[in-house]
Amino acid sequence: MQGRALTLLLRRVAPVAACLMAACAEHEAARVDEVADRPNAPPPMATTMQAQVQLTFYGGYEGFYQPDAARERSYLQTRTDQGGGFWSTQQDFSTAQAPMGVAGVMDVGTASFSSPGSMTLQLRDGGILVPPDTATARAEMRLAPDEASATGTWEPTSPIPVAPLRAAGSTSHAGTADRVIVTPQARDRAIAQLSRDYTELSAPTGLRRFEKSVGTERLVVDVSTTSGAVVREELWKEGSRRVETVRRYRTVNGTDVLSLQTTTIFDDQGRPAQRFEERQSDVRISRAEPRRTTP
Amino acid sequence: MNRALASFLICAALVSSALAAQDRPVVFVHGLKGTGFGWQPAADYLRSGWKIFDIRPTIGWTQTEENQAASLHASLGFTGVAAVSHSNGGIVTRQYARGFGAATRVNQHLAIGSLHRGAPLAANVRNGNVPLYAGWLANAVVEPFDFYDTEDPDFQFIIPPILYDLFYFWYNLASVYAQGVAVLGFPVPSIANVPVLAQMDPSSSLITALNSSSNLTAEAARFPQRVGIATAMSPEDIVARLWCGSGCREGRIALEYYALLMYTYYQDHPDLWLRSHAYLWERLFWAMYDFNVVWHFFIGSLISYDGFQAVVQPQDGILPWSTQTYINGTRQINIGDKEIPHFYQRVDPRVWQSIEDVFGANFGLVRRPPPPPLVTTISGPSPITAKGTYTWTAMPSGGVGGYTYQWSVHFYGTGQSLQLGTNQAQPMTVYQSDGDFDLTVVTGSGGQQITTTRYIENTIPGGTLPPPSPPPPPPCPTVAVQSSSTAVPMTRCLP
Fold this sequence. Notes:
The complex is a heterodimer.
Chain A: H1 2-21, H2 23-36, E1 46-59, E2 71-83, E3 86-92, E4 108-115, E5 118-123, E6 128-130, E7 142-143, E8 174-175, E9 181-182, H3 184-197, E10 199-201, E11 207-214, E12 217-224, E13 230-237, E14 240-252, E15 255-266, E16 272-287
Parallel strand pairs in A: 7-8
Antiparallel strand pairs in A: 1-2, 1-16, 2-3, 3-4, 4-5, 5-6, 9-15, 10-11, 11-12, 12-13, 13-14, 14-15, 15-16
Chain B: H1 3-22, E1 24-29, H2 40-49, E2 52-55, H3 65-75, E3 81-86, H4 88-100, E4 106-112, H5 120-126, H6 129-151, H7 155-158, H8 161-171, H9 176-184, H10 188-192, H11 195-200, H12 205-210, H13 213-222, E5 225-232, H14 238-243, H15 245-267, H16 272-275, H17 279-289, H18 291-299, E6 302-305, E7 310-312, H19 321-324, E8 331-339, H20 349-361, E9 375-379, E10 388-397, E11 404-411, E12 417-419, E13 425-430, E14 437-445, E15 448-456, E16 478-482, E17 489-493
Parallel strand pairs in B: 1-2, 1-3, 3-4, 4-5, 5-8
Antiparallel strand pairs in B: 6-7, 9-10, 10-13, 11-12, 11-14, 14-15, 16-17
C-alpha cells in the first residue's frame, strides 16, 4: 500500500513540480515582482495576498481502504488586511464539492473566516450554510506588518485591539506570510524565534537545525542557511517520528516563494500512512499606497 | 379446568377459526435490532384495507438465523401464511424454508430491504474495519481541537461557539473509541459479537447455502411467490441521513470547511510549534471530505472513486441494491426515485403501497370492502331558553368504528371561539351573554374524518343578542325621481 502511494505520489508530483519550477516560474515572476524585485528596500505594507492553492491527499484509512487515486481540492485563497493588523481569509471554490459529484444545495462556493469565531459558508446558489456570527468578539489573526524592522523581533506598532471577551493572560500572536514568501524580514523573524525558544543542534551543510520538546512531543526544525526558509519539520511523539513536513521553494527575482509543501503522517510502525500536499501558485501581493501628506 | 376458562378457550378457538376462514394470516418478520412491535404501524394500515390478520413475532435478533427461524415457526399456528419480512428477517424466512422443508407454514414471501447476498457492512464490523475507522475518525475530530485548545490561548476566540460546544460534547465522552462509535451512530460493540452477524457476512456458509442452486430450487417450491423490494437514498451524507438528519449533514460539511480554514490559519501562524500541528486540521478536512465514500465502502455500494467523483450503486444507507434483489425471485420492486432509508422501510407509506401491490398482484389477497361513509349528527337542546348546563352528543354512523371526537364552539355574542372536549358527549354551561353559537364536532374513524356544525339559538331572557343581521342587499343602479309636489329627490331600484 505504501509502495502504491509512493508511486502515485511520484506520478502526480513530478509533472506538477516540473511545471512549477520551469514553465510556471516565468508567469509567476510577474506576480511577485512587487515584493521580490526590491529585496533591499523595506517591503510595502501588504494589503492583499492571493494565491491559487491545491491540496492533495494520498493514502487510505488504517490500511483497510485505499482509494484508486489521490483526492484534490483547489481554491483561490485571498487574505485581506483589514487594518490594525487584522486579516481575513476567503477561499473561493470553483468546482462543486467532491467526492460525490453533485452537491445540490450543499455546494459551497466560498468559505470565509473574516473574524475568529465567525465562519461563513456561502453556497454557490447564493444561500448561506453557516452565517457569520456577528455577536462574536473580534480577535482576529494578525499578520506581521511588512514595515517591521528587518532586525529584531517584530512588535506591534499600534495597540492591539483586545476583544472584550478575551481571557486574562491570553497572548496574541501576529500572523505571518513568512511560510509562503521568504523575505529577509521573515528569515530574521524565524531565526529570532528559534534562537530564543529552541535548542540548536548540529546540522548538515546548508541547514541550521533546532529542536523543542513539549511533553511527549519533540519538534525538529530545519532552516535553510541560504534563504532562511523553514524547509523541514519533524514531529516526534514518544520516541517515534509521527509527522514530517518538507517545503520546497522556487526563487522569483531573488525571493523564495513556496511551491510545494508535503506532509507525511507515519503509522505506529513508522511507515508512511497518509500524505498531504499543498501547492501554491499564482501568488499575488497587492499593497496599499503609502499615505501622502500635503505640505 | 373450570368451566369459565374452558368456555373462554372454546370461544377463542371459534373466533380464531372464524378469522382464519375469512382472513389470510400474514406474518411480519423483523430484522436486526427489531421486535414485532416495529411492524405495528404497517400491520394496522394493511389490516384495515385487506382481508388479513397479522402475526408479529419477536424472534430474538441476536440469535443465529436457525434459531430465529425456529422461533418464527413456533409463532405460526396456521399453514398457508404469507410472510412480509424486513432486512435480516428476509434471511430468517428463507432459512425457515430451507430448514423446515415441507413443514414450512409460509407459502409466499415478500422480502423488503433484505440482504440476499449478505451484508458487507456486517463483514466490516466483524473484521474490525468499522471499529478501527470509528476510532481513527474520533481522533481526527478530537485531536486538533484538543491540541489547539491546550496550546493556543487564542483558540477559544477563534473557534465558532457552536463548534466549541460540539467539540466539548464529544470530548467529555468517556473514551475516544466511544466517540468514534457515537460519530458513526452505530453501537458497534453491542452487535459486534452476536452470532447472527457472522451469518450475515456475504461469504458465510449460510448465505452460500441459501443461494446454492439446489436451495433456490427448493425455495421456489416452498414459496411460489418470492418478491423483493429495495429502496434507495441519496449517495450523499448517507450516514447523516440515517442517524441524525439533515442538521447533522450540514454539520459535517461545516466542519469540513472550518477545518480547512483552521489549517490555513495555523499553517501561517508565526509560532512554529502551533504551525507544526496544522496537519491535524488538514487531516480532519480530508476525513470529512471522504466520509461518505468510506461509508459506501463499508456497505458495499462503492464501485469506484477517482479522488473526485465516487461511483456508487443505489443503496439504502445500509445495503446496496445488489444484495437487496431477491435471487431467483418472481418479482423485484426497486423504489429508486424516493428517499427511503433502510430503517424507514417498514414505516414508510410509499413502501406500504408497494406491499399492497404485491398483496393484490402476487399474493392474491382480497381487499376489505370499503367502509360506509362516515356521518355524524349532533343531538341536544336548541333553542336554549334559560341559563344552565346542557349536553350535546355526537351521533356517528358509518366508518370503521373506533370513533374519535374533537368539539369546538364559536359564540356570536362575544365573537370568541373555544376548543372543547374529545368525548362523544359535550356538556357546556350557557349564559345569556354568549348569544347564539355554533357547536362543531370533528369525528374521525379509520382514515375518514367529518366535520359537523349545529347552530344553537340562545333565547335566554335579559337582552339576548339578535342573530347576525342579514347582509345589506347589493347596490343597485339608481334613478332620481322628481316629485312634482315636493321636489325632493327619491331613489329606488330600477326593475
